[in-house]
Design brief:
mainly alpha, 1 helix
C-alpha cells in the first residue's frame, strides 16, 4: 500500500476510536436534603 493510503487508514482508525471513546455518558446523582416531618401528639 502507498504511504497516503496507510496514513488515511491510520487517521480513520484514530477518529473512530476517539468518537467511540468520547460517547461515555456521565451518571448524574441528585442528593436531596432530608427534612424531619413535624410530629403531633394528638392521637
Amino acid at each position: 500500500m502507498s504511504k497516503s493510503i496507510k496514513a488515511l487508514v491510520a487517521l480513520s482508525f484514530v477518529a473512530i476510536v476517539a468518537a467511540c471513546g468520547g460517547q461515555q455518558e456521565e451518571e448524574v446523582v441528585i442528593v436531596e436534603p432530608i427534612e424531619a416531618e413535624p410530629v403531633s401528639n394528638k392521637y
